[in-house]
Write a sequence for this structure.
């Protein structure tokens, strides 16, 4: 009788904790789970709810421990397994995350939230084909959840299923026409054929009267479709509205300070001192880092190189910057600062090489070479060079005006929202390029993307030769698209101040 009464009491407390967790009342969750665990240390639900509480508070190591305990006590807790996989991925314990997903995702059945979460983990790992059936199942269970449909649409886009993606974004917008990011993603899917979507978006702007800073994605979407239709002046007007609304040049000073510190710290003497000690446990792996200006054509270049029979694509990953943050003692959500660069530069070289390849290992399948095409890795070529003495670097260079214009169009780049900040950042990028030329010497391959568009076979043969690879026709089949070549001339008058600024600085 006593045992039955105690069990009933713990059940009532557990139910109260569950209700509190759904309401995000974490203080009540803490009180309830503490009471349960005082009487029963082997209560899987109490440990699971403790994990949710710790995660909400940002205490991720404690959350990992709690979810692990819940799963250990009840091996069928698929919800705890997915929560644990999510945290493992955040800590770059990618192999563990994938192992958990492979075992537990098939058990999720009717749990739409966790199906979507499992899909999101696979997405962050770049495994879109594995994310797709999970997102699809979540949408079948709850077809009216915007977030679920947006994730499925983004996955469809990544897999090249543009018709499905378009239908999904339209479904979201049929319920909530003011969902600006869905309008933006819809605009980016394919070139506009008429003004129907533009007119719809303009009506939304007129009817909602939101502050300009809340309309960045709608301005950008309208601008993109006007550009598709060749309405150059009005298109630039909307790109300018988006840029002004996004906050002008708020981030450029910090970006330039970071570049200047990298130039100061990652010099030839520093590289030579550390490169001699580089002893990665993965010495058989030969990486090729394809880098460039933000919004550059690294992906198109990567497709060419990765089409070779001796090369595989690891796509565009942020693992290298994440490892540098760790080396500098920073959290993953922190921006890399000059101080983090200082601290990371003193870290043992194996921390970077082994940490990066541990995170990447699930993407690699035994090819002699692999590519990573994150443009921002350009900032960290010094760290890469010391960590991987055999690594090669391809810097993709475009016409400065095209490069700046491509960045100006990006709503998320806070340092690219004025002509002056664009020029300042580009010139800083050029200073860093000059620095890497001196430090890396023949390890740095410079690819002129405009020349690649004009004479693809010649440039591809030369590029493969620099990588010590024989020419293969498959690489030529991946010729880049020429749509953006010289596109800045469509707005030559509007961009004249930028052109003059760059020319005055020798570009």
């Amino acid at each position: 009788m006593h045992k039955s009464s105690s069990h009933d009491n713990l059940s009532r407390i557990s139910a109260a904790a569950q209700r509190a967790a759904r309401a995000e009342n974490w203080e009540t969750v803490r009180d309830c789970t503490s009471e349960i665990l005082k009487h029963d240390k082997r209560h899987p639900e109490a440990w699971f709810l403790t994990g949710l509480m710790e995660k909400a508070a940002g205490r991720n190591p404690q959350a990992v421990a709690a979810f692990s305990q819940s799963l250990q006590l009840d091996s069928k807790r698929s919800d705890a397994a997915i929560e644990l996989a999510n945290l493992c991925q955040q800590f770059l314990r990618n192999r563990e995350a994938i192992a958990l997903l492979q075992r537990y995702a098939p058990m999720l059945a009717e749990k739409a939230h966790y199906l979507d979460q499992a899909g999101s983990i696979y997405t962050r790992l770049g495994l879109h084909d594995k994310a797709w059936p999970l997102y699809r199942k979540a949408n079948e269970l709850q077809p009216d959840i915007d977030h679920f449909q947006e994730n499925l649409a983004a996955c469809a886009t990544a897999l090249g299923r543009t018709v499905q993606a378009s239908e999904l974004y339209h479904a979201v917008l049929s319920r909530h026409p003011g969902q600006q990011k869905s309008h933006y993603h819809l605009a980016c899917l394919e070139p506009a054929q008429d003004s129907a979507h533009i007119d719809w978006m303009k009506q939304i702007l007129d009817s909602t009267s939101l502050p300009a800073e809340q309309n960045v994605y709608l301005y950008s979407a309208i601008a993109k479709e006007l550009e598709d239709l060749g309405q150059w002046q009005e298109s630039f007007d909307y790109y300018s509205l988006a840029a002004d609304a996004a906050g002008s040049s708020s981030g450029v000073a910090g970006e330039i300070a970071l570049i200047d510190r990298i130039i100061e710290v990652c010099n030839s003497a520093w590289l030579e001192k550390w490169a001699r000690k580089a002893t990665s446990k993965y010495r058989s792996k030969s990486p090729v880092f394809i880098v460039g200006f933000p919004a550059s054509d690294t992906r198109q270049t990567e497709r060419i190189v990765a089409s070779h029979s001796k090369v595989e694509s690891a796509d565009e990953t942020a693992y290298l910057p994440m490892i540098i943050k760790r080396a500098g003692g920073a959290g993953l959500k922190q921006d890399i600062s000059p101080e983090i660069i200082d601290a990371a530069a003193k870290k043992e070289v194996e921390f970077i090489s082994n940490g990066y390849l541990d995170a990447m290992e699930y993407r690699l399948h035994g090819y002699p070479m692999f590519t990573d095409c994150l443009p921002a890795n350009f900032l960290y070529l010094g760290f890469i060079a010391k960590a991987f003495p055999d690594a090669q670097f391809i810097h993709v260079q475009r016409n400065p005006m095209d490069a700046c214009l491509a960045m100006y169009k990006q709503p998320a780049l806070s340092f690219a929202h004025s002509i002056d900040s664009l020029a300042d950042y580009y010139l800083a990028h050029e200073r860093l390029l000059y620095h890497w030329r001196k430090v890396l010497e023949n390890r740095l391959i410079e690819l002129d993307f405009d020349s690649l568009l004009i004479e693809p076979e010649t440039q591809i043969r030369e590029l493969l030769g620099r990588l010590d690879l024989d020419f293969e026709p498959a690489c030529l089949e991946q010729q880049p698209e020429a749509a953006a070549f010289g596109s800045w001339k469509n707005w030559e008058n509007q961009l004249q101040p930028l052109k003059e600024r760059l020319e005055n600085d020798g570009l």
